[in-house]
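go over my protein:
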Amino acid sequence: MNNVEKALKRKLNNDSEMAYPDFDEMWNRMEQTGHTAPTLTDTFDSFTPHRHRNWRKIAIAASLSALLVAVPVYAAIHYNWGDLLHGRSGIETALAQNLGQPLEQSVTKDGMKLTLHTAIVDENRTVILYSLEVGKRADNEFWNVKGISLKSAAGKSSEGEYSFQQWDEKNQRYNGYFESDWTPQQEVENVRLTVDHIELTSMQELDLPLDITSPQMQTFKLDRNGLQDMKVQVFEQGKDKLMLSSAITFDSSIPKRWDNPQIVAYKGGEPVMSQPGGAFGTPGENGEYTAQQYFTKGDIAKGQTTFKLQYAQTEKNIDEPINFDLQLSKKEMESGTMKSVLHIPLENGNPNFMLEQMIVTPTQIRVTIRSEKKFAMLPYQKYFLSVNGTTLEGSRWSSPDQEHDLNTIRFERPSDLVITQDTPITFAGKYKVTTHSDDKTPQRLTDISEQKQTLTTPIGGYPVKWTYYKQGSDLFVETESEDTHFGGINQTHIGLGKERIIGKPITVNFAGDGNNKAVDVYKNFKGKEASIYMFYYTTDDPEAETSVSLQPLTSNSEASK
C-alpha cells in the first residue's frame, strides 16, 4: 500500500477522532465582546471528517433525469453501518429498536447512484442515512456528497448541519449520514432534501523541503494545480512540541475549493501522527489558506523526517442539485420523548448561567444553558450526565440560527439506558476556565530588534514570560507561563483608543487545551519600543466542578431499582 493510499485511509477513517473548533462561533463571540477587531473576523470550512456547515440558501433546481428505485421497506434498518455511526450511539439505538423511518429513494446520475435509506427524526434532530455507489475508483480518489440541506414546504431551511461519510470496503460503496437541528413542527411534514453537488477529489502530494530547526519564515514555490506558494514558520511550544504555522496562496484564476491542504511528515516511509489541537482553514489577510499543526519534536527529528504538502484536487463535479421529496415523521419517537423546564443555576448562587430545558428523546438528551450576557463563554469545558448511575459525556453544539445567549449540550443515548419521569438525573460541569478582562496594565517592550528578548511579569498571580523580536519588518510577541493554571492570553494590541494596533494571532488556542503559549505578529512594525495590552486572559482549574440535580431521586426511583 503506497503512502498516498495510507494517508487517504487515515483521512477517511480516523479523522472522526480529531476535534476541529467552531471558528465561526469563536470569532463571533470574541468580536461581539470586544476582544478582537472586526477586520480579524474569520470563517471556517471544517476539516475532514467532511463536516460541512451549509449556511447558504438552498438552491431548488429543475428535476433531473433520474431513476427512482423502490426496495423492501425495512431493508435500510438492517444494513450494517459499521464504524460510520461511531460516536452516534443514539442513532444506533434507534436503528436497533426499529425506530428509523424507511425512505429508500435513489437517484442515478452520471453513473453514480445516491440512495437515501433511513430517517431518524425526533424532537432534537433529523438524521438521514445514505449511500453512494460510484463503481470503480482509484486508491487515491474520494467521492463526496456535499451541501446536503432540508427545506420544509413552508420554506424554512435547515441550519446547524453536519455530514460524514466513509468508504465501505466490503460493499464497495460510500456510507454517510446527514444530521440537522431541523425537526418537523408537526407530526408529519413534507420536506425537500437537496444535495448541492457531488465531487470527486484525488489525494495529491508535493515534496516540501522544510527545515524544522529554522525559526525564520520559509517560502516554497508550488506552481501546481492553482497552488502558488506556501509560507511555513516553525514555533517551539514548550519543551517537546513544535507548531507549524502555514499559509497557502492560490492562483486567483481558480476557485478556492481545496480540501484542506496540510503538512504531512514521514519517518522511515511511514506517516507521523500529528498532535491534537491543530486548526485548519482560517483565512489570512489576503485570503490565504492558513493552518496550525502540532508535532512532537522527537517524532520529526531533523535528518530522519521528510515533509510533504498533501491536498485534495477536484477532478470532477456534478454541480446540478439533486432533490428528494420526503415526508418525515417523528411519531414513532413521541412516546419516548420528555421535556422538562429547569431554570436552575449552573453554579449555586450564580445567575450568570441558567440551565433552562432538558429534552429526552430515544436517541439523545439535550440540555440548554442560558447565559445572562450574549456571547458569554461557558465556564466549564467538560459536561456529564449521571443517569441512574450511568455516566454520559456530552458535547457542545451550536448552529447559526441559535440565540446568542443560548448554549446546547448534547448527550448520545445508549441502547440499554431506561429513562422515565422518576429516573434520577444529575448534570455536572468539570474543568473550569475563567475569563479575566479587567487587567489593563501595559507591558513595556524596549530595545526591539531581531535579537530575542524576554521579560517576566505577574498576571493574575501567575508568572508570564513575554518574548519579543523582529523578523524582517514584523514584530513577534510570544507569551507563556510555566504554571499550567494560567490558561493564556487570547490576543494583544499596541496602544489604546482608535489608534491602537491589533496583533494578529499566529497560534489558535482554545479554552482548556492545556497550551498557554500564544504568538501575535505586528506586520511592518516601526519603532524600538511598544506598550502591549491584553484583550483578556484565562485561568484554568482542572479540578473544579459543579453538580446540579435535574431529576431528583424519588421513592418511585427507589422502587424501580
Q: What stands out?
A: The longest strand covers residues 188-208. The radius of gyration is 25 Å.
